[in-house]
Amino acid sequence: QVQLVESGGGLVQAGGSLRLSCAASGRTFSSYTWAWFRQAPGKEREFVAAISWGGGSTDYADSVKGRFTISRDNAKDTVYLRMGSLKPEDTAVYYCAANPTRLWFQRVDETKYDYWGQGTQVTVSS
Fold this sequence. Notes:
This protein is about 0% helix and about 50% strand. The chain is built from no helices and eleven strands.
């Protein structure tokens, strides 16, 4: 059974940092594109960041560019999201997702991701 399990969320003050982790099990994800999405209360889920299967390419939403860093450890089937200079508007439930294709142009399309974690809450206080 495939599972993606996120961890690392919590409450942090504005300007602080958090690192989210997403560990996969049930199969090998080394060839998958990974991404993080988030959903704030009353809003649609949105793309945050993505990393290509080999880790050589990354992409970020404009709202987090320069503050967040996505990385992966294929040996551990784990993807990370390092979040810095956090703002209250970063408050959301964060989801990791895995896309089985290597089609990089699909990276922001959540319908292309077959596997999703349960989500982890990030709350940034002002």
